[in-house]
């Protein structure tokens, strides 16, 4: 959590030029967009689930989705709180059917998407699907998939189709080479209203960013009046940091630099989204995206939870190893993410962004000691600094190891490179 956001929010001229906001009607940085809660009651805590894209991309099939649903049950992810099975881009027939109706690719989803949704629902899970507010999805725009099946001009019909299929979650990806704010507001609002009109409780997840040439709109504005969750950055990758700027995919460190200062925008039915979890996702050794180390995976999971971010896994579930499963199902860390108070995480002053804290609904405080250095470093703070009331002693619970201890005030640890120590603290009333 560096000072990257300082430059972000002060680059007003760049933002104005990027988004096409005229001097006559500026929308201020940080403004809340929309007219209230997007769709009430669909996500009182951050959504948890699994998405096909990070492990399968366009290589989708009915079999892959059903296997993932089965694995969510057998692995314990469902019981840990993961509910949504989300089919990302490339699920559709490249051509719409009679009357312009969306339909599944007949070769890979021969029984159609309602049958897939029924299978997912029968396992106590919820079903998600993907679309775009423009005429092409991202894969179609990039040439990886044929056709023009975006929802532009078809919003009401597509929303009704999704509801009829039993869709519980819509990921709606901008997918256009420009990001005019007025056009984005109109397009995303049109689908929000269409989803509302179906009467079905559907989580509405948007991405307004699409490789824009400067700070992404998802970081500049508060989209909580339009979407249930909104992406704050461009796409996450299985890397710590790419160093390529904000107009490309990003690593965990870069996404945290942008998203952590936006934590106050989180709350019931509106969650800033730093993108999917790369835990257990295979990287390419020797490349810019080599995969995350065990320490980096702890940092992603722990900091996403501290920020009350949606937890959407992206690993290949049927082949998930024990370490990945244990991390993704850690009940103490999930409890932080899902805490109903949804209090914002804040940086502790004087710690150079290495200590963050958050109040929980039971009166405890979670502190994260996060090391973005390339070598182990000592990080120290105190119970008073993280906001605990004065007390003779404090209980300290390590959320990774389960170990408990007490302190009379000082807190600290030697934290490995790119790792995060996550502690839950409360006054010790046993004495």
UniProtKB/TrEMBL annotation:
Catalyzed chemical reaction(s): Hydrolysis of terminal, non-reducing alpha-D-galactose residues in alpha-D-galactosides, including galactose oligosaccharides, galactomannans and galactolipids
GO biological process, one term: carbohydrate metabolic process
Keyword vocabulary terms for this entry: Disulfide bond, Glycosidase, Hydrolase, Signal
Domain of life: Bacteria
One Pfam family this sequence matches: Melibiase_C
Keyword Hydrolase annotated: yes
PANTHER family: ALPHA-GALACTOSIDASE MEL1 (PTHR11452:SF75), ALPHA-GALACTOSIDASE/ALPHA-N-ACETYLGALACTOSAMINIDASE (PTHR11452)
Protein name (database record): Alpha-galactosidase
Native source species: Nocardia aurantia
């Amino acid at each position: 959590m560096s000072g990257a956001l300082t430059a972000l929010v002060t680059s007003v001229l760049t933002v104005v030029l990027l988004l096409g906001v005229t001097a006559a009607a500026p929308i201020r940085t940080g403004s809340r967009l929309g007219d209230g809660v997007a769709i009430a009651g669909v996500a009182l805590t951050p959504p948890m689930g699994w998405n096909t894209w990070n492990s399968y991309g366009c290589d989708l099939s009915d079999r892959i989705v059903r296997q993932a649903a089965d694995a969510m049950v057998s692995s314990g992810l469902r019981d840990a709180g993961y509910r949504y099975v989300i089919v990302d881009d490339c699920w559709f027939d490249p051509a719409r059917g009679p009357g312009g109706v969306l339909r599944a690719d007949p070769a890979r989803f021969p029984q159609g998407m309602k049958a897939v949704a029924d299978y997912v629902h029968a396992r106590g899970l919820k079903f998600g699907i993907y679309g775009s507010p423009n005429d092409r999805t991202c894969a179609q725009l990039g040439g990886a998939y044929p056709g023009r099946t975006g929802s532009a001009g078809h919003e009401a019909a597509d929303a009704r189709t999704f509801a009829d299929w039993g869709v519980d979650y819509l990921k709606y990806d901008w997918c256009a080479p420009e990001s005019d704010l007025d056009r984005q507001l109109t397009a995303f609002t049109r689908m929000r209203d269409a989803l509302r009109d179906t009467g079905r409780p559907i989580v509405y997840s948007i991405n307004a960013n699409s490789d824009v040439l400067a700070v992404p709109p998802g970081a500049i504005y508060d989209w909580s009046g339009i979407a249930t969750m909104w992406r704050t950055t461009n796409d996450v990758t299985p890397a710590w940091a790419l160093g390529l700027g904000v107009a490309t995919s990003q690593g965990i460190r870069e996404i945290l630099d942008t998203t952590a200062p936006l934590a106050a925008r989180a709350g019931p039915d509106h969650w800033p989204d730093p993108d999917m979890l790369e835990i257990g996702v295979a990287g390419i050794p020797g490349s810019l995206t080599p995969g995350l180390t065990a320490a980096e995976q702890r940092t992603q999971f722990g900091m996403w939870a501290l920020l009350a971010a949606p937890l959407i896994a992206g690993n290949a579930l049927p082949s998930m190893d024990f370490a990945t499963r244990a991390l993704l199902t850690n009940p103490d860390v999930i409890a932080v993410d899902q805490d109903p108070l949804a209090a914002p995480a804040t940086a502790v002053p004087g710690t150079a962004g290495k200590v963050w804290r958050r109040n929980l609904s039971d009166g405890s405080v979670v502190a994260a000691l996060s090391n973005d250095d390339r070598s182990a470093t000592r990080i120290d703070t105190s119970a008073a600094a993280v906001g605990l009331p004065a007390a003779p002693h404090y209980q300290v619970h390590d959320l990774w190891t389960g170990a408990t201890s007490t302190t009379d005030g000082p807190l600290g640890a030697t934290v490995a490179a790119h790792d995060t120590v996550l502690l839950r603290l409360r006054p010790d009333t046993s004495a």
